[in-house]
Amino acid sequence: MALLDSAFAFLYQLGDAFAFLVLAACGLAVVFGMMGVINLAHGEFIMCGAYVTVATTRAGLPLPLGILAGSLVAGAIGMALERLVIRHLYGRPLDTIVATWGVSLAATQGTLIFLGSSMPGVGTPLGSFSLGSYSYSTYRVVLMLAALGVLAGLYLAFNATRFGTLARATIQVPHMAEALGVDTRKVYALTFGIGAALAGLTGGLYAPTMTIVPTMGTTFIMEAFVTVVVGGADIFLGTAPAALVLGAVRAVLTSWQGQLYGQIGLLVAVILVIRVLPLGISGLILRERA
């Protein structure tokens, strides 16, 4: 019985780490993996989603609608940012680093000045359940299901819809798409907006579990980037396996030696994977298919 309890505890921890990495990385995977834009303001879109979710929920809106509001607001701000800043920097990755870093600093400091150093939270809903001698948060299971739902939704959006076809064509061969009558500027704006909305969704989903502060985006940004880099260029093939591998490494080391060793092991695993697979996990899968 003790062995079954320990096995379930490990699987729960693995699922929790997997959900965190997938949700943190999906928005960045769209913006960085598909569009080639290095968005250092990704964490601030997550922060935006969290703040809007908490504010609307405390104003009386149900939590699911608050999360949706956070996602939509972050997506709208992302489209505005693409129109005003990012659109002029395509094909200039170093410039996008500087520009989005500036946006990140402005967003963090602006939030600190106007909204203060923290915001009262809403509490984690749904309570907990017990199995054996351990107790588990039910809401964490919801986050695991949400991560799977986001992956499925992204796959369908970019592989089974007209917009997905236009987006992939625009990103891969923009001049040909434009010659065929595709409004590439609109496609770029919508794609960047989807990435920002996914970041806002992540912030909204994790808002009940975290302290709401202007710098909360830094909790997500490192894990998001390493997951996308390990996954490789194809976000649909690489993001989920990368999150599973990195989540397993973190879960094993965290359960063995604690949180710090789990974080260190995650970074070491990233270095090893990049050294062995410079094109990421999706590059290996595509090479095997070929």
UniProtKB/TrEMBL annotation:
Membrane-spanning residues: 17-38, 67-86, 98-119, 139-158, 187-208, 220-253, 265-286
InterPro entries: ABC_transp_permease, BCAA_transport_permease
Membrane topology term: Multi-pass membrane protein
A Pfam match: BPD_transp_2
Highest taxon in the source lineage: Bacteria
Main location: membrane
MF term (GO), any: transmembrane transporter activity
Biological processes per GO annotation: amino acid transport
Gene Ontology cellular-component annotations: plasma membrane
Subcellular location: Cell membrane
Keyword list, A-Z: Amino-acid transport, Cell membrane, Membrane, Plasmid, Transmembrane, Transmembrane helix, Transport
Sequence similarity: Belongs to the binding-protein-dependent transport system permease family. LivHM subfamily.
PANTHER family according to UniProt: ABC TRANSPORTER PERMEASE PROTEIN (PTHR11795:SF447), BRANCHED-CHAIN AMINO ACID TRANSPORT SYSTEM PERMEASE PROTEIN LIVH (PTHR11795)
Name of the protein in its database record: ABC transporter permease
Provenance organism: Methylobacterium aquaticum
